[in-house]
Amino acid sequence: MRSIRTSLMAVMAVAATSLPALADYLVREVGSFHVGGRTATVSGMPTRDVVFSPGAPPIKVDPNGEFAVEQMYVQYVKLAQPKAKVPILLWHGGGLSGVTWETKPDGKPGWQQFFLNSGYDVYVSDAVERGRASWARYPEIFKSEPMFRTKKEAWELFRIGPSYEVGGQRVAFEGQQFPIETFDQFAMQGVPRWVTNDAATQKAYDALVEKVCPCIVVVHSQGGSFGFNAALAAPDKIKALVAIEPSGAPDPAAVDAGKVKAVPHLIVWGDFRDKVAVWQRLPIAPTKYRDAIVAAGGKADVFDLPGMGIKGNTHMLMMDRNSDEVARLIHDWIVKQRLVN
Amino acid sequence: MRSIRTSLMAVMAVAATSLPALADYLVREVGSFHVGGRTATVSGMPTRDVVFSPGAPPIKVDPNGEFAVEQMYVQYVKLAQPKAKVPILLWHGGGLSGVTWETKPDGKPGWQQFFLNSGYDVYVSDAVERGRASWARYPEIFKSEPMFRTKKEAWELFRIGPSYEVGGQRVAFEGQQFPIETFDQFAMQGVPRWVTNDAATQKAYDALVEKVCPCIVVVHSQGGSFGFNAALAAPDKIKALVAIEPSGAPDPAAVDAGKVKAVPHLIVWGDFRDKVAVWQRLPIAPTKYRDAIVAAGGKADVFDLPGMGIKGNTHMLMMDRNSDEVARLIHDWIVKQRLVN
User: N or C: which end of chain A has fewer CB within 10 A?
Assistant: First the structure.
């Protein structure tokens, strides 16, 4: 009996030291591109006098001309010998960029690194208007003003804790998994967003799928709708769709969910949804859409993490302390879809 | 005689097939972080009604609160077995982001890939206000309006050709090396800039040097001043500074160039400078600063590419067709500074 226990412990020790996030891997190429977008022309605006350096004479600047707008940015790491049959694409949520998937605010490896170490070619993108995708003059090109998320909104909306007082105390949920001591580091990842670019964003994502898929797509939050719609538009190209806390979904009355019945879907939910009012409302549309896929004969699984005994996950679960544990559940689900050699 | 010729040809064939940009390499980690910055507080602004989805009722948005501002974004690829003794940091120019150094607009490997393949740990950053570094509300936090570069300005200022007519003809310089058929792809890399963030940007770069150096720094264009000043602030941390077409430099009357006499400097200039008026003015300050370093007993080399027989390079020489040839000259110069094992 003792020897069996010892063997089990030895096996567990090996498993612990061979976590994929800790191994080197052979890379074929690190690269990037922009995809989608169009040329916009601005005309009839007055020239402006701009002082480029303090004390220097002003220089006339003509704001009129042609601009590249509404493209998105995509960065990839291709392995020399990928194990996954198709690459994995990581699509971020609202007010954020592809940095979501990179090194976590606490300095530990994020999901980009996890999936590279697990043998996937990984594509991380910045949607239209975010990060390296760039943004355009408003209201002449983008049709509204940008929105800037406060630290308070991030803290409360992302279910790190019930209240954040400016200049004062930050109250966290008991047992939550976000590394709150590095919350200010996380806040640096925020980027402005617009509410009028959804169509352009969807178009760019569809162009990305056309360019690099077949693929697996992992979406987060606002990315949910873009991912669900991308799969409806190209069900032959998206071999699996994993939606992490999607904040929206197509209305089954307006689309044919049967189109994606051959695309396995997985929706993942974290903890504390009952403690933040908006999180009782946000899952309704994705759940309705999920039910429609199943009713149409498709596959749409749900991982309710607290229901599976995995407690304390916030909306930013790819940055939580147990992010590798959640990533491994997703990887195992992908393996079951026969997408990994 | 024949056998010697054959051996030489064999050696040359090996050299040609072992171009660093074509080989796989073992990676320890792909990661990123934000560095520098501060928390800014906005108060006293009215709430706004925002319609987040067409047709939905407006939601009240409170713009007041705390924001992370003036940080910069840094992404690194660390090799399992780097040959360079210290990492290389690639700092972009004005109106651009770290994408400058990644895959070229023509889809071929850029300098990030070149230096990885040559055995360096490579750090590519987005300066304050650019790309994944994010930007802040103006005029409340950033003190001026953003500037958007037109395609015409990029074409002419970057010395791709003498004239760009909106909706019409693009005239290129004869013999220039930029892949002009992919100019529209390049234009997607442009990001807005401000003229009032230089001090915050310098502060963030200095924080980056403090965090990750000793290192080699390669700067481009507007990055020139930030690199020269970073070396003056931390001459023990920057082991070599390569300035690609720097658009500015410290005034030797205002700084002590002797501080960097142990830091080897290299300035690289492309072609067609006599054909664009501003390019007869821009090199004056860097040249004066370079002369001051030499007068103080330091090392500051100059590669005047056309003078060395390398013709046709634009301001974006890391994207030109012969970018590997120029990168190799720089790599060889770094090797001479004894920074590569």
Answer: N
